[in-house]
Specification:
Elements (H helix, E strand, L loop, with lengths): L6 E5 L13 E4 L4 E2 L1 E3 L5 E3 L1 H5 L5 E2 L4 E4 L7 E3 L6 E3 L3 E6 L7 H8 L2 H10 L10 H5 L8 H41 L12
Parallel strand pairs: 2-9, 4-8
Antiparallel strand pairs: 1-10, 2-5, 3-4, 6-9, 7-8, 7-10
Length: about 200
Amino acid sequence: TDLASVCKVSSGFAFKSSDWQDDGIPVVKIHNVRDGRVKLDGCAFISAETASNAERYQLFEGDILITMSGEIGSVGRVNSQKPIYLNQRVGRFEINSNSKIESDYLFLTLWQSRIKKYFENISYGTAQPNISPSLIGQTRVVLPPVELQRLFGEQISEIFTLSSLLESTNYAMQESRDLLLPRLISGELDVSDLDLVA
């Protein structure tokens, strides 16, 4: 079965350079999609006003993304419930209605190294490799019965849940570090009364 028969790939929004700012609502770019994850550290940011003009490019928890320029075929899954938006040259998979493919199965199929290698081989461009949504859609995949896909998903769901929990915890700790460390270094945060164990 080819991917186009079960899902479609839509590219992100072409934000302008003037849209970027130092904080605000995160935007996922190519470098944020790696190793099966969508990493929010190092994201670009846009204002709420800019985001309101790109509503259909908002990402949601569980969305499957793929890089389509430079680093071809890296996939990741959104694990955040916060508002996040999708930049151009990163694609989002949308499973067709009444499609006979489960999200977990699609994600793990795309995450295989041989699929990534295939995407790299069919990419085009000399200065920078690119791949189009239509080329991705032509990719042939093995499609077991839906019941078997669901059983497989049930077996691995605990792993996904734990991975998501650990990633969320790690991100929250990074945010706390980024907030507290500058205050600690500047002396704004007084820790002299803390009973610190060496």
